[in-house]
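Q: Please design a sequence for this.
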């Protein structure tokens, strides 16, 4: 038994026990302090280790003292970072410590929701119990929802009510775990050093009625603090006399719901009214932030609707999206009992290993009943319209970190019974939650110094933009727009004019590197100018497959364009394709008549100055408001009269390095010194950079491998990548076809985490093996290159203006066997050349569109 420092209280409670967490319900901080001080004085007298967790705005509970270890914590960094700090301190302090925590209710100032205070207590209290500690916590009475208090009551060992009535002091034990006496759970009146139980029925009824009455005045007590806050906001919005209060509330709501990123928060405060924030909350499931992707979408739509020259309402599709708050993600982890594993994942040793375990568990958890009911309401609202559940994490789509393609987004065809549609939706949510623990996402966070930051996953639930085509559903156009074009392939183009990357059908093929298929890239100042000239290239670099939602089969799928044409669907061919006269002529010569053949070029759409002018205006308007280049995702649907409707799905700051200083490339280069040269087909602006090492995958040797061998090459690349110190060894990676493809026959199937330490990348065309680069400007892959500052070049050795001199590599020592001694059988496929002493340098110039790699 241990003492509270107050003999009368020890008598009531039968003393404290190892592992006890004691929660005091109070009206004022002084009441909590009255019990903290004797407890600490007693612990000091007994030589106990005392730890004070200081995080609240109220006056300190304890003065600074050598006998008390004090930790200053900041809860504004978010639930995860705060809880992780506390967990780490508890671990370091070890068994048997005595703890004092500031009043937990003050955490509402940082988190604005009871839910997360309940979650904090649920994960902290059991850990303290495990380590045989004794801990005091305070909470303000009637400040929290009944549900939160119920969770605290369920988790703690002792819950004590403290209150004053006139000059009298009462304690009412509500829970005392594993201890009992006939009078223990009665109210007790303080008389000197003693606490006297109120045993007389009349006195007890009077005292308890008084306590009850103190809580009756708050009729909204069953609501979370979060909901009460928004109810106050509604009242302020209706009363013109409270406009000053409303303005402060507007800023507060932006801070707790929109973003913690200062730049995004500033944009939100600048653009959203109080009424608009209340409307956003009305579509929010749970509490917390709506996440970067949702903020970007809403912010862009608001900016455009305020631009009078655009008539945005007349040309755009309205949105009716929902948002799953970021707090739901952590609650899902806490309520399924995985927080300890989450804390293990936050350590250096468990960062990847524990993540693999948690990733699997996240796919199979249960949601809280209240969340399940709100999920069901979303399903009922959308009916059987296809929807997409998109990641919208706190750090996503902000300034500096796009997280492009790092987290999942899931199409839900949304067909079948309500039960089937709910199961499909819940599975989509779990899939996205699980993707937070993917190796790519974890590597991305660590590489950018974000691995210790609070990264909660919110969700954006959107109606899929498009229309029904018999049993299929898809938009006419899906695309990406970028306000600053760093991939200009002609000297007449200007980077500031922007560029589009578009496909027919769902826009997934515009944002991902797709196999054997090419979207249409159009510079907005020369929309009909292609990066290639002849008809053969037009066919080669065109789209052949279309992503659609199959409503009959209830799945997202890919269809051949020619198959769609054969199904007699209502397709606006006049906007998206041109006739392939050569194939038609050949077929007629073979006796096949009466059929047209088409090539997707989007030429007629891009020839429409109203369309290209509108997209250019949209991008420039957003760029001017963001004070930064932007990237958007959008769809286009055509009405029967030819008018188009744009749906803006996403907007984020574009990560870009700019052109850089002009580089003078030597006019005459000794052939023996030249490794490669090309015109166009590069990304990364003007550079002049030394090459210290070359990793080269020989195209002919690679294509000769079986599929297992090709995957081996990808894993070997990962091993080599880990051995690169990016700051000291500037590495050029060269290989056939597409790096990062999911199809080994089209290139080396590495993940981005397996090549993220390189400085320069080259994709080599190898027609004999049908291996072709894919100029990925505007894709998630492109974003990774830009954010990681990797220069990219595509080499087409068969072109007249390209030199690729592999004989030059004989000037360098091949150290592959030394670096990866257990991969000797692939020494003819991969080579690692040390080039530091050769003076090799790669140079590029945007204006002349030349790139050269040569030695001194």
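A: Design:
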């Amino acid at each position: 038994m241990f003492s509270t420092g107050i003999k009368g209280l020890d008598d009531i409670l039968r003393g404290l026990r190892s592992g006890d967490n004691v929660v005091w319900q109070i009206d004022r901080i002084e009441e909590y302090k009255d019990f903290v001080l004797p407890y600490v004085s007693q612990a000091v007298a007994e030589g106990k280790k005392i730890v004070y967790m200081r995080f609240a705005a109220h006056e300190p509970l304890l003065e600074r003292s050598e006998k008390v270890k004090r930790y200053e914590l900041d809860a504004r960094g978010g639930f995860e970072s705060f809880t992780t700090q506390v967990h780490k301190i508890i671990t370091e302090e070890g068994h048997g410590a005595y703890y004092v925590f500031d009043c937990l209710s003050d955490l509402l100032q940082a988190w604005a929701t009871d839910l997360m205070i309940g979650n904090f207590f649920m994960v902290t209290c059991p850990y303290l119990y495990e380590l045989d500690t004794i801990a005091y916590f305070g909470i303000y009475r009637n400040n929290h929802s009944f549900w939160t208090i119920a969770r605290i009551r369920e988790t703690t060992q002792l819950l004590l009510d403290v209150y004053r009535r006139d000059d009298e002091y009462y304690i009412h034990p509500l829970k005392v775990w594993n201890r009992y006496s006939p009078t223990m759970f009665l109210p007790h009146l303080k008389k000197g050093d003693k606490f006297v139980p109120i045993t007389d029925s009349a006195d007890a009824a009077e005292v308890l009625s008084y306590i009850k009455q103190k809580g009756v005045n708050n009729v909204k007590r069953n609501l979370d603090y979060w909901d009460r806050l928004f109810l106050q906001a509604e009242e302020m919005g209706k009363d013109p006399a409270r406009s000053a209060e409303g303005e402060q509330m507007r800023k507060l709501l932006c801070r707790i719901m929109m973003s913690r990123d200062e730049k995004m928060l500033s944009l939100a405060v600048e653009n959203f009214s109080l009424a608009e924030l209340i409307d956003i909350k009305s579509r929010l499931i749970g509490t917390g932030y709506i996440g970067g992707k949702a903020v970007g979408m809403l912010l862009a739509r608001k900016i455009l609707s305020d631009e009078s020259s655009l008539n945005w309402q007349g040309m755009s599709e309205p949105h009716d999206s929902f948002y799953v708050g970021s707090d739901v993600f952590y609650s899902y982890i806490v309520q399924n009992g995985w927080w300890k594993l989450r804390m293990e994942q936050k350590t250096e040793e468990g960062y990847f290993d524990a993540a693999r375990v948690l990733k699997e568990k996240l796919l199979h958890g249960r949601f809280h009943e209240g969340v399940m009911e709100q999920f069901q309401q979303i399903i009922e609202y959308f009916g059987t319209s296809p929807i997409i559940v998109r990641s919208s994490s706190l750090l996503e789509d902000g300034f500096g970190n796009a997280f492009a393609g790092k987290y999942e987004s899931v199409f839900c065809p949304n067909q079948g019974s309500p039960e089937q549609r709910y199961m499909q939706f819940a599975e989509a949510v779990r899939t996205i939650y699980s993707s937070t623990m993917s190796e790519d996402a974890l590597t991305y966070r660590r590489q950018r110094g974000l691995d210790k930051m609070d990264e909660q996953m919110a969700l954006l639930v959107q109606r899929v933009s498009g229309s029904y085509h018999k049993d299929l559903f898809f938009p006419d156009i899906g695309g990406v727009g970028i306000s600053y074009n760093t991939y200009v392939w002609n000297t007449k183009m200007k980077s500031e004019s922007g560029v589009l990357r578009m496909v027919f059908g769902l826009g997934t093929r515009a944002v991902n590197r797709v196999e054997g298929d090419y979207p249409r890239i159009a510079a907005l100042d020369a929309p009909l100018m292609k990066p290639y000239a002849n008809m053969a290239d037009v066919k080669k670099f065109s789209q052949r497959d279309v992503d659609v939602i199959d409503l009959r089969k209830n799945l997202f799928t890919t269809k051949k364009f020619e198959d769609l044409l054969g199904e007699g669907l209502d397709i606006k061919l006049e906007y998206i394709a041109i006739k392939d006269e050569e194939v038609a002529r050949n077929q007629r010569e073979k006796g096949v008549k009466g059929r047209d053949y088409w090539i997707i070029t989007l030429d007629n759409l891009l020839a429409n100055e109203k369309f290209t002018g509108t997209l250019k205006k949209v991008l420039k308007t957003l760029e001017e408001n963001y004070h930064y280049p932007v990237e958007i995702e959008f769809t286009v649907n055509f009405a029967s009269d030819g008018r188009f409707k744009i749906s803006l799905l996403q907007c984020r700051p574009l990560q870009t390095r700019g052109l850089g200083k002009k580089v003078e490339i030597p006019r005459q280069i000794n052939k023996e010194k030249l490794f490669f040269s090309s015109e166009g087909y590069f990304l990364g602006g003007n550079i002049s950079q030394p090459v210290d090492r070359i990793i080269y995958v020989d195209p002919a040797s690679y294509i000769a491998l079986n599929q297992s061998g090709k995957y081996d090459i990808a894993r070997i690349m990962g091993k080599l990548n880990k051995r690169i110190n990016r700051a000291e060894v500037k590495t050029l990676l060269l290989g056939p076809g597409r790096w990062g493809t999911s199809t080994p026959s089209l290139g080396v199937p590495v993940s981005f985490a397996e090549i993220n330490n390189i400085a320069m990348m080259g994709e080599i065309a190898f027609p004999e093996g049908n291996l072709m680069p894919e100029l990925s400007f505007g894709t998630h892959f492109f974003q990774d290159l830009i954010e990681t500052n990797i220069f990219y070049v595509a080499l087409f050795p068969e072109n007249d203006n390209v030199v690729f001199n592999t004989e030059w590599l004989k000037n360098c020592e091949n150290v592959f066997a030394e670096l990866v001694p257990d991969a000797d059988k692939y020494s003819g496929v991969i080579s690692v050349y040390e080039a530091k002493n050769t003076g090799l340098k790669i140079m590029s110039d945007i204006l002349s569109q030349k790139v050269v790699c040569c030695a001194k």
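Q: Thanks. Anything notable?
A: The chain is about 35% helix and 20% strand. The CA atoms of residues 310 and 614 lie 8 Å apart.
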